[in-house]
Amino acid sequence: MPLPTEITATLLLARPAQFDLDALRDGIEAQLGPACSGLRERRWRHEPLLSSARLHLRLSARDLPLAEERLPSDIGTGLAAFLGDDPNGCFARHRAALTLTVGAGPLPAEKGAAVEPTTPELFDQMLMVAHAAATRIARTNHALALHWEQSNQILSASRFAAMGAMLFPLPLFLHPRPFQQEDEDPAWLSLEIEGAVDLVGRPLRTAPAPVELGWIIPRVYALVSHLRATGQQVRNGMAFATCDDERFQIRLEEDGGMCLVLLEKDGRPVPKPSALSTASAA
To answer: Where are the domains positioned within the chain?
Structure first.
């Protein structure tokens, strides 16, 4: 699946945005070092942007609130609710916005023009530049919240700020979204991991399991980190674990996606949902 050619983040602000491209460039290069050297200010269609030989960064400020349809309709559910975030409240309070876009190539492509495929190395660099830039702009403008389009999630200012020192923040690039089929046991949890296909080349989800969100999410991050670090080819039935008393198996699905199936937890086999329901009824 082709990688995106742009990374977009939108900051929700209480007042019109202020930014200094020179200071922003210096901050990005200080955090990322040689990986992002060579950024310089250029103009594109009368609009200033930062550009290097491999990528560009442009900013678009809006002195009015965003329309509600610009953000996901379920922004206040799932992971946000579990973490105690109030994205709906942030959205209601915002009065201005700033959108930053990091794209492949030194300048944005003309409409309809052919664009070279984004390599994994360049895509990682685009993610890191977008994160570094958004962190600095959020800090100087006291952002209320941020919407990260690549993983389709909105983060409170405090949650986003906690990732500021991370070079490659998986909690930003991956969005574990809880979901449940109608016939599933309500005590069991499944996750759809938005953004995973960009990082490991396949959709990723977890099979229903009797676990809490705070327990399973670090295992998802660990799996993604392991696959990226080792470059290991995913095989159907491949085993995975983060400690001795647990065991996962990766199941490849018809759509090419990976399903992380929990087989053992705390040294004991995990029953199937049907077995759990039968035991409860008895």
So the answer is: 6-164, 174-281
